[in-house]
Design brief:
By secondary structure, this protein is an all-alpha fold. The protein is built from 14 helices and no strands. Helix 1 packs antiparallel against helix 7 and helix 9 packs parallel to helix 13.
Length: 289
């Protein structure tokens, strides 16, 4: 799962090396450290080809197909219209997912190579892990928790979007939670999230800080999104789906969650690139002084 964050670390460290006095030397040193660490981690498995292949099969379980169950990523959501498993062999799907994941990570990586920064690195971790969740091969429902790690570090700066991300991350796992009989912990955790985002006497609502009206278009859309997910929670627990479409409610949860994740990914990539202009402006100011 640490692969989800690898592009962010690579691009940030590469950007730092390129800004040093001797960039080629710094890149060589970084490469040696990476290769040495990789060799140490894999050393116990390199004595046997079968052992190494077994580890690789666990890291990339291609034989299980490009998706399972109803995870809120691109491949599973779009399979409602495009039957990927029927139309394409596993080898082609591996290539598709690799290309899609790389393309989704590229904007964030390029930004950090050109203008590395601490805050940009956090956005890079978020965008990289979210890209892997949306487009990589054989994603598990719980993998959405990985983007929440860097998102938590950015929540103070940007409360409302990250509150919505937390909501839909939990919501996307609701069918899995029901299968594992974890509804009570799910409710308790969600109640805790609400309390943290809306503490008594707190000022978490960024719309109030910016002086916007409480009945703005964004507020209305957010309210409708919350109400829609609440209705789906109740319907999933109380209503039997049609016999012709036994997984209808899972598909609706998946579609609603995926739509938010995509919009959120566009938004956070834009926010990350906005940091570049700020950094360039500050560098010019330093040079003038």
């Amino acid at each position: 799962m640490s692969t989800y964050f690898a592009p962010a670390f690579f691009s940030h460290l590469l950007g730092k090396c390129l800004r040093r006095k001797h960039p080629l030397l710094e890149i060589s040193k970084l490469g040696l450290v990476v290769l040495g660490t990789f060799a140490m981690v894999w050393w116990p498995y390199l004595h046997s080809r079968d052992a190494a292949l077994q580890v690789l099969s666990r890291l990339a379980p291609f034989e299980r197909g490009i998706y399972e169950d109803y995870v809120a990523n691109f491949w599973c959501t779009s399979s409602v219209l495009i039957k990927w498993k029927r139309l394409f062999p596993t080898q082609s799907l591996r290539l598709f997912s690799m290309v899609a994941t790389i393309l989704a990570c590229l904007p964030s990586m390029i930004q950090q190579i050109l203008a590395p920064s601490s805050k940009g690195f956090l956005y890079g971790l978020l965008n990289s892990s979210l890209s892997f969740y949306l487009f990589s091969f054989q994603v598990h429902e719980k993998s959405i928790l990985l983007p929440l790690l860097p998102a938590t570090l950015l929540a103070m700066e940007w409360p409302r979007p990250f509150k919505l991300l937390t909501h839909y991350a939990l919501f996307s796992m609701f069918p899995l939670v029901c299968r594992d009989n974890l509804i009570l912990p799910y409710i308790a955790l969600y109640a805790l999230c609400i309390f943290l985002y809306h503490p008594p006497g707190g000022r978490w609502d960024d719309s109030k800080r910016q002086g916007s009206t409480p009945l703005s278009l964004v507020s209305v859309l957010l309210t409708l999104a919350y109400l829609g997910s609440l209705v789906l929670h109740i319907v999933y627990l109380t209503v039997r789906p049609p016999e012709r479409y036994p997984f209808l409610f899972e598909a609706l949860i998946m579609l609603l969650s995926f739509s938010h994740f995509v919009l959120f990914a566009f938004h956070t990539n834009t926010k990350q690139w906005m940091l570049s202009g700020h950094l360039i402006g500050s560098d010019k100011g330093k040079k003038q002084h």
